[in-house]
């Protein structure tokens, strides 16, 4: 059987080598590129992202990355967004009063976290829903977060017309101290995304990436 291929999308967003190495360890063939056709042809597309929402969207549009994501999803081809690569999948981002349109694969707004300490940085547990493929075998595990913004409300309602996305939540701190809740991950058919960094999350992150690769 041919080795599966994954493109890590290079659109100028930070150091991507750790993501490439982490996916390579799952046994697939990985290429770091911003080429549209290669991104379209690969079995899986990983969309990373660090820094400001507006800058990431500008870089993504410069290589037609938003169109690439849409084309892949229209054909049911897997996409995984990580950190700001997850945030840009939502309709809008608001940073420092500036509103930026996202890829609009999901409704919702990326906004500053309502937390005593921002950024939310370090290891945290998540509340994964029953039936999650991403978190299969990872109940109670911790993942590495570093972010000041997130999606605090999930607004997509399917009204039972189609299978509802599986949404995983996390908090910026203990509930008893008023920790703010935000979306930590989403599984929506071929589109998966995580707010945390699986490539920086040790064995748990490696297992989640293997779970994603198993769907390719």
UniProtKB/TrEMBL annotation:
Pathway note: Amino-acid biosynthesis; L-histidine biosynthesis; L-histidine from 5-phospho-alpha-D-ribose 1-diphosphate: step 5/9
Top-level taxonomic group: Bacteria
Keyword set includes Hydrolase: yes
Ranges for domain Glutamine amidotransferase: 7-213
Recorded GO CC terms: cytoplasm
GO molecular function, one term: imidazoleglycerol-phosphate synthase activity
Gene3D superfamilies attached to this UniProt entry: 3.40.50.880
Catalytic residues identified in the record: 83 (nucleophile), 197, 199
Subcellular location as annotated: Cytoplasm
CDD domains: GATase1_IGP_Synthase
Complex formation: Heterodimer of HisH and HisF.
Protein name per its UniProtKB record: Imidazole glycerol phosphate synthase subunit HisH
Source organism (scientific name): Nocardioides bruguierae
Encoding gene per record: hisH
């Amino acid at each position: 059987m041919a080795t599966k291929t994954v493109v890590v999308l290079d659109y100028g967003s930070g150091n991507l080598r750790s993501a490439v190495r982490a996916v390579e360890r799952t046994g697939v063939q990985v290429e770091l590129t911003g080429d549209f056709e290669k991104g379209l042809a690969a079995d899986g597309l990983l969309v990373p992202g660090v820094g400001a929402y507006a800058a990431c969207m500008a870089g993504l549009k410069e290589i037609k990355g938003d169109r690439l994501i849409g084309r892949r999803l229209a054909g049911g081809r897997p996409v995984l967004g990580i950190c700001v690569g997850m945030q840009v999948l939502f309709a809008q981002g608001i940073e420092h009063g500036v509103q930026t349109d996202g890829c609009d694969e999901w409704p919702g707004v990326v906004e500053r976290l309502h937390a005593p300490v921002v950024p939310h940085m370090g290891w945290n547990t998540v509340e994964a829903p029953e039936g999650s493929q991403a978190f299969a075998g990872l109940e109670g595990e911790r993942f590495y977060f570093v972010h000041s913004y997130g999606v605090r409300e999930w607004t997509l309602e399917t009204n039972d017309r189609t299978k509802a996305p599986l949404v995983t939540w996390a908090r910026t701190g203990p509930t008893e101290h008023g920790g703010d809740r935000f979306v930590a991950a989403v599984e929506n058919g071929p589109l998966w995304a995580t707010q945390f960094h699986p490539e920086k999350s040790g064995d748990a992150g490696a297992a989640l990436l293997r779970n994603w690769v198993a769907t390719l």
